[in-house]
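thread: overnight batch results

M.L. [08:02]
morning all. the overnight job finished for the chain we discussed friday. pasting input first so we're all looking at the same thing
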Amino acid sequence: MSNKGTPVDRTSELMVTQEVPGISRCLEEAHSLDEFSTSHKEVLSTNNMKKPEVSGVMTEADIKPKSIHDAKKWSADVENLYRFQQAGYRDEVEYKQVKQVDTVERWPETGFVKKLQRRDNTFNYFDKQRECKDKEVHKVKVYVY
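M.L. [08:03]
and the structure it wrote out:
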């Protein structure tokens, strides 16, 4: 019976060799005392390694909008949506999920978004005044959750 061409899960067989600094001296001393015998390389099994826990942020990342429509008239909310969409995000909800931040930097005078970090880790900086022109309002997508 041949397993040729059949994928085999070998994750439990994977072994990782890790250099441990300073352990060779300690092991040589222990070996000279005949306490135990081993090499200066420590073999670790992936089954014993601690796996990262899923945080609450990750479970909230599954939030999807229920519906979408185009903006018809400019407002402060449409202005902020325009800024998020210029930076490559649907809205503030998606930005906070992707960048894992609690707050967005805003202009205190107007409440408009001041600075956003794009997905490529560059930044978009926005003015205090309105940037979404009337002819671009219809391009803004409004997401309903």
